[in-house]
Design a protein that fits this description.
Chain lengths: ~300, ~300
């Protein structure tokens, strides 16, 4: 594989984490414009852990996940009573709060004779684990793929057990869910923690691939994109958001013939798809049909 | 210190009035359709760029530029409404939001194609003197903003209360089923509301661009975010609330910018926004569903 394909595939993999994160909240009935915040937390957390504190890579990634999940739950705790637009704006407010906070967050320590660490708006340079450990881009792509598979497996486990059903019933009809004796608040906080953890996971991987992160990368746009991926790809399964990312980044790259008109063509295509399939390409009906076909 | 506070508050009120107009547009669309049009800001952006282009090409005066902004915003909004709202069935609110996002991407690329640079000039109101009220200075553009916003809200309130279209719009916003069974042409009212919202947004966009003297394609994202925030602070579905929300946002931003700097402004604004949402989910002027029902019963 040439380096261009590798970088495109790596981006698809990393964006999938963010898209799955937004998708989990969509399933639980909440629109989030702010999952990029947990991606940023994962990126900064894991980056600081490996570059400044010199932790092993796996431990650093774990720290990013815990940070994303923990802050996710902490933000969801006061915000869980909000729904619809209110929740969307609350998540946006937190994400922008965090981004502007990172703009003034300085934590530089001397490591091996060099000053390393986040330097406010100048960003955070030299997250060099992959370079120092001699991991090639292809190896890192395989690592991203493996991590993504583990997230998919986790969601599959939730779907086999009660977890996914809980999320869906709370998302579809919270009053009905409460009448069944389900603690809606607890499920929502759990969903936010899971979504935050997944985004943090992706963020940690991203920081170590890019070796450089800055607050400006975690603006509103990636968050809105992530949300759109689930809606375009379909809400039926975890493959929906991944399909959304594939369609977006993949189709955009292959639409290079349209050069400057890519977004015009692509935006129109997405709008047309949504007219025909309002719940996305891989919606619940498509899933049911697919399963029925498999069982035949 | 106190004088700074007063000066910032005056400036903030003026910018806040423009935010309020953006929020007004969002509130109208959200009230009637219960769906979020995140391409609202980008359609205003198209209008502003149309005005800037007209000015650069033929150096026309303010009135034709204003009309071009209005026309650009309204035509783009009609396009968004047809593709992202009218064509998607009513119960798929999320699909409309995603679709308006896709159209947003389209609009942004279209502007980037036609205007490849980063910033463009926009005509300003020249030759108007600074207004001095004691020690406080008021920029003339800001006075225009304040007066326009107040006049628009007053006209809108009157129109909603006294015209047939206003009645239909309110019925559709309060009880969609009742509107349908009493013969309101729902699709038509929704379409016209969309255009009305775009016109209000276009006016806001024109005033903001004329006060700044320059525009970038980022104004689309900016207008969507500020409008959404002001609408939510004020409370969903209340016109007065939208304006109040905009004014509050403007005043808080202006003072935080002065006393805390740019980074401090962002952090304070968003922290306050988060707190306001959690503590006052119904917004400053909004009512909870139960409160609205109680009021309706009292009137009966």
């Amino acid at each position: 594989m040439d380096s261009y394909t590798i970088s495109v595939l790596s981006n698809i993999g990393l964006f999938s984490f963010l898209a799955i994160s937004a998708w989990i909240l969509l399933i639980a009935g909440e629109i989030s414009f702010g999952q990029q915040a947990y991606f940023a937390l994962g990126a900064y957390g894991a980056g600081i852990a490996t570059a400044v504190w010199q932790w092993p890579f796996a431990l650093g990634l774990g720290f990013g996940i815990v940070l994303g999940a923990g802050i996710g739950a902490l933000v969801a705790w006061p915000a869980m009573r909000l729904t619809g637009v209110h929740f969307a704006i609350a998540t946006l407010a937190f994400a922008e709060f965090l981004r502007s906070g990172l703009n003034i967050f300085r934590y530089r320590r001397e490591v091996g004779g060099y000053l390393t660490g986040p330097d406010g708006a100048n960003g955070f340079r030299d997250i060099r684990w992959a370079y120092e450990a001699g991991v090639e881009p292809l190896g890192y792509l395989i690592l991203i793929g493996g991590c993504l598979l583990s997230v998919i497996a986790l969601v599959a486990c939730l779907a086999r057990g009660r977890g996914m059903a809980l999320l869906r019933i709370v998302g579809e009809d919270p009053i009905l869910a409460a009448m069944q004796g389900i603690s809606v608040a607890r499920v929502r906080i759990g969903a936010a923690a899971l979504a935050g953890g997944v985004a943090g996971f992706g963020g940690g991987l991203y920081a170590h691939m890019a070796t450089y992160v800055e607050p400006a990368q975690f603006g509103v746009m990636p968050g809105v994109h992530a949300l759109a991926y689930g809606l375009i790809g379909g809400l039926g399964t975890v493959f929906g958001p991944i399909l959304g990312v594939l369609v977006d980044i993949g189709a955009l790259e292959s639409l290079r013939v349209f050069s400057g008109y890519r977004m015009i063509v692509f935006g129109g295509l997405v709008a047309l798809v949504l007219i025909v399939r309002p719940r996305g390409l891989l919606d619940e009906a498509a899933l049911r049909r697919g399963l029925a076909w498999l069982r035949r | 210190m106190l004088l700074d506070l007063v000066q910032n508050t005056v400036d903030g009120l003026a910018v806040g009035a423009a935010y309020g107009l953006l929020a007004l547009g969002f509130t109208l669309i959200f009230g009637v359709m219960r769906r979020l049009n995140i391409a609202f800001g980008p359609s205003i952006m198209i209008g502003i760029f149309a005005g800037a282009w007209l000015h650069a090409e033929w150096s026309v005066g303010m009135v034709p530029v204003f009309l071009a902004v209005l026309a650009g915003a309204v035509i783009t909004a009609a396009y968004v409404e047809r593709i992202s709202f009218a064509a998607i069935r009513g119960d798929a609110a999320l699909a409309s939001m995603a679709s308006s996002f896709a159209i947003w991407m389209q609009l942004e690329e279209a502007v980037a194609r036609v205007f490849p640079g980063r910033t463009y000039g926009f005509p300003t109101f020249d030759g108007m003197p600074m207004i001095e009220i004691g020690p406080v200075l008021l920029r003339p553009e800001y006075l225009v903003m304040l007066v326009t916003a107040a006049a628009l809200v007053a006209a809108l309130q009157w129109g909603l209360a006294h015209t047939r279209f206003g009645l239909e719009l309110r019925t559709l916003a309060d009880r969609p089923e009742a509107a349908r069974v009493s013969g309101v042409n729902v699709a038509r009212v929704a379409f016209l509301t969309f255009l009305l919202a775009a016109a209000i947004g276009g006016i806001a966009g024109f005033l903001i661009a004329a006060a700044d003297g320059q525009i970038t394609p980022k104004i689309g994202l900016w207008a969507t975010i500020k409008g959404l925030i002001a609408m939510v602070i004020g409370g969903l579905g209340s016109l007065r609330g939208a304006l109040i929300g905009g004014l509050v946002l403007g005043v808080v931003e202006a003072n935080a910018q002065w006393f805390l700097g740019a980074a401090g402004r962002e952090m304070t604004t968003y922290a306050l926004l988060f707190l306001a949402l959690v503590l006052l989910p119904a917004g400053l002027a909004g009512r909870t569903e139960a409160g609205a029902r109680a009021e309706a019963e009292r009137r009966l």
